Amino acid sequence: MIFLAASIAFSASGCGIQDWFALLTCPTTIAPAPQSTDSLPPEFTSERLPSSPDRAPPYPYNHTASIVETPNGDLLVAWGAGSYELAPDTQIVVSRRSEGNQEWSSPATLADKPGFADANCVLFLDDNGTLHLYYVELFGDNFCLSRTMQMDSPDGGVTWTAPRPLLDAVCILLRNRPIITAGGTWIIPAYEQAVYQSQFWRSSDRGATWQATGKLFSVPLNLQPAVVQLADGSLFTLLRNGSNSGTMLDARGDACGIGWTVRERGDLPNPNSGVELIRLWTGELLAIYNDSATLRTPLVAALSTNGGESWSSPKIIAGGPPQLSYPSAIQTADGRIHVVYSANLTHIEHVTFTRAWLLQP
Predict the structure, then answer these.
(1) Of 11, 154, 214, 319, which has the highest C-beta tally within 10 A?
(2) Which residue in 193, 183, 198 sits closest to 229, CA to CA?
(3) Residue 166: CB partners within 8 Å, gap ≥ 6?
(4) Can you list the alpha helix ranges (DSSP code H) found in the chain?
(5) What is the pLDDT of residue 55?
(6) Order of all β-strands in the sheet with 146-153
(7) Which among 186, 265, 263, 175 is positioned nearest to 223, based on CA atoms?
(8) From CA 214, how far away is CA 149, in angstroms rounded?
(9) Contact at 8 Å (CB) between 255 and 233?
């Protein structure tokens, strides 16, 4: 295994007095023990989500999807749809596949600021069953002229609250879903667009208020972190490379996401594209990424049994012309793994597979 330039620890991650106090009071509860190996047989399916709203032409641009399973077993996928990236008509839309049904609904508008783009949505189900939509709302013509917003649903996405500000900052963007640590801390993985530096936002009051940790400085640059909690309570994140050097980065942090050490991974390629990371029932980590240093194709899945130190040989879940990008993944209550991703920015694809399929040669 090859590890390239390693960088940053507590001091370089910008820890201030508030961060150090939070670290001293951070819950140290260990993450729940992994569940036993699932017994599902090998399965793999792929399908295209609809991109046409009711009685209207399809959206030309469809990107940055996020998937979630609701408490009643429905699947929801939200994404940005419009004329092109950052077009004034780009909005957040949502499609539903009801439990027991194989058909997806036509995309319906979920969030839309007239005259400005909405982007980078994240669906997040908390441990009380409330569904949250976090997203970026622009007030100008570029990502740094933006703020994060949120909407909440008590009924699995049937009804939603009005949009309201999420994080007290501008030019801070989202890409991957938050986690709730075993100690009860909510952590949003975010990044500053202007300087390509990842940053984690913490909440100890279930999202009522948020505190930013220091930014993760590194060379090459990093952004769009995807984070999980490991069995020892520490946090692990995979990071998009923002410097076009062709490799992914990872970082390890304390249980509250305050102090981090970042390193570049010579064994994991990254063509300056988004990555996904989740922890399976087995305790294994699942990474979804582009297995190329230069192209956003193919899209592959790999497993780690040792907390991200090493990874299995990548298995292709989508191949073809670029780009196949920006994956979002979940493991549903039946044990299956679902991934949605952008296909050439023209539509959203949904693949479903089992761990047994992933382990096949």
Answers:
(1) 214
(2) 183
(3) 134, 147, 148, 149, 150, 210
(4) 17-24, 355-359
(5) 84
(6) 118-125, 131-138, 146-153, 164-170
(7) 175
(8) 21
(9) yes
**Which DSSP helix (H) or strand (E) runs through 15?**
none
Q: Residue 304 CB: number of other CB atoms within 10 A?
A: 17
Whole-structure pTM over 0.90, yes or no?
yes
Find, among 277, 265, 167, the residue nearest to 228 by Cα: 277
Percent of the chain, pLDDT > 70?
90
Average pLDDT over residues 279-302: 97
Please give the average per-residue pLDDT across 259-278, as a whole number: 96
3 state DSSP class of 161? coil
Closest C-alpha to 105, from 141, 76, 80: 76
Residue pair 355/336 in contact (Cβ under 8 Å)? The answer is no
**The token pair that represents 181 in the structure block:** 């640590």
C-alpha–C-alpha distance, residues 220 and 251, integer Å: 13
Residue count of the chain, please give it: 361
Q: Hey, what domains does the chain have and what are their CATH numbers?
A: 3-27+38-50+60-268 (2.120.10.10)
For residue 322, what is the enclosing H or E element? none
The 10s digit of each residue's pLDDT in 99-113 is 989 999 999 999 999
Tokens of 34: 């992994």
